[in-house]
Amino acid sequence: MNYQELSHQINSKSSYLCVGLDTDINKIPQQLLKEKDPIFEFNKQIIDATIDYAVAYKPNIAFYEALGIKGWESLQKTIEYLPKDVFTIADAKRGDIGNTSKMYAKAFFEQMNFDSITVAPYMGSDSVEPFLEFEDKWVILLALTSNEGGKDFQFEELKSGETLYQKVLDVSQKWGTKENLMYVVGATRSKEFQEIRKSVPDHFLLVPGVGAQGGDLEELSKYGLNENGGLLVNSSRGIIYGSSDTNFADVAGAKAKAIQEEMKGYLERVC
Amino acid sequence: MNYQELSHQINSKSSYLCVGLDTDINKIPQQLLKEKDPIFEFNKQIIDATIDYAVAYKPNIAFYEALGIKGWESLQKTIEYLPKDVFTIADAKRGDIGNTSKMYAKAFFEQMNFDSITVAPYMGSDSVEPFLEFEDKWVILLALTSNEGGKDFQFEELKSGETLYQKVLDVSQKWGTKENLMYVVGATRSKEFQEIRKSVPDHFLLVPGVGAQGGDLEELSKYGLNENGGLLVNSSRGIIYGSSDTNFADVAGAKAKAIQEEMKGYLERVC
């Protein structure tokens, strides 16, 4: 999916919601465990219930990898089930030397046909660029993450005066464009949000922190939205684990709808 | 495998060689393609031919992931085939928020029973610590990588005067010990090697760069070895793709033997 198509989806659904499919076999409703593929069955029902309110879906790959080959099968079925007009994110946080990153790109862009993948910046340009060579595919580079450990290095002040995450934003803009490069920006730090928007006014930002990680949707929408949307806001646990009962999909749908309605209001302010 | 057992292996084989199983379906000898599982067949023959000269094996996970479910099956068979007295490294460069890193740890330490996994430091403490909670399992943290892009951020000078990779070494020593934490140190920079040894005198260092990435074994052994070994030096392409003919395993064995003999000499100098 390209930039224009993604902006169009945001416009037409009045939503920039990404549903995080962090599907944990120990957390899904008991009655699904009798299904042949409980993980896929759960995802399928969540997707059906939320598809009108979400523009993107983000399986966190760790949850599938932890189940071995069965997990990869569930992931493959999930990505095949998702309609072509939603943006798909492999939250994999990969990154390695060039020939290896190329292998990861093949795995996620060709084997599984994801639109995008999250990538860690520590190994620099040649670890990221192989992902950028695929047409209409995206890198979502970690810039500022919302976890506690994010403070260990990302806020380090460099001799030049900027912080490490600012340096990541600056340097990486030479590797890709707003058409194939997004950034992960942790929502719990809305003070930094304005400043980040100044560095990357046009790039899409993926905000992973609304819900369990405690972001403030109004605040980050105020600073993060631009005229093309420019934001994808993820909620995982807050949507998919709203209920552990037979009505889990309905509850997920209602939660997604509530977020979408809030987003609609914020979108109207900028468009 | 614990610290003492690894040191013992190094001593008894007079080797600190790690064989990188970056097994690429497009590079393995043609005649293997008629096998049911060419990747595993290649690995099996490489392992048989090199097992007397190597103390560790490091499959780069990307090469398996790129093949989808079949690749994961080949990886699983490979890890099961490796004898218990070699150290196994999942070169996966994972790292995510706490509950997600725990999932990755389960995938590699429980599902696949690897001894260790490479982890990227950008997301800080809570992305690394879940891996350190498994007994006799190891994190191998990226500190200084040997690729060109490694220069983009790792050498950034911080306000404190140290470089980012030094900061990673300093901070991460609070997370683990020499018994469960190693570092990736790119061999192409032996000037930095001495300095790194001062920061982490007792930790094992994994050097990924001998062979195709151009490290100098004598130089890095001089600065990197300590009385417990303290080094694992990886060679991937230089060993496994020595010949594309039917004799590929013999050639790999001979190449591994030559490196081991050189290593034996360097070990005698320090022990």
From TrEMBL, chains A, B:
GO molecular function: orotidine-5'-phosphate decarboxylase activity
The EC number(s) this enzyme carries: 4.1.1.23
Matches recorded under Gene3D superfamilies: Aldolase class I
InterPro entries linked to this entry: Aldolase_TIM, OMPdecase_type-2, OMPdeCOase_dom, RibuloseP-bd_barrel
Class of enzymatic activity (EC top level): lyase
GO terms for biological process, alphabetical: 'de novo' pyrimidine nucleobase biosynthetic process; 'de novo' UMP biosynthetic process
Catalytic reactions on record: orotidine 5'-phosphate + H(+) = UMP + CO2
Domain of life from the UniProt record: Bacteria
Pathways per UniProt: Pyrimidine metabolism; UMP biosynthesis via de novo pathway; UMP from orotate: step 2/2
CDD domains: OMP_decarboxylase_like
Keyword annotations from UniProtKB, A to Z: Decarboxylase, Lyase, Pyrimidine biosynthesis
Domain Orotidine 5'-phosphate decarboxylase: 16-252
Active-site annotation: K93 (proton donor)
PANTHER family: OROTIDINE 5'-PHOSPHATE DECARBOXYLASE (PTHR43375:SF1)
Protein family per UniProt: Belongs to the OMP decarboxylase family. Type 2 subfamily.
Protein's recorded name: Orotidine 5'-phosphate decarboxylase
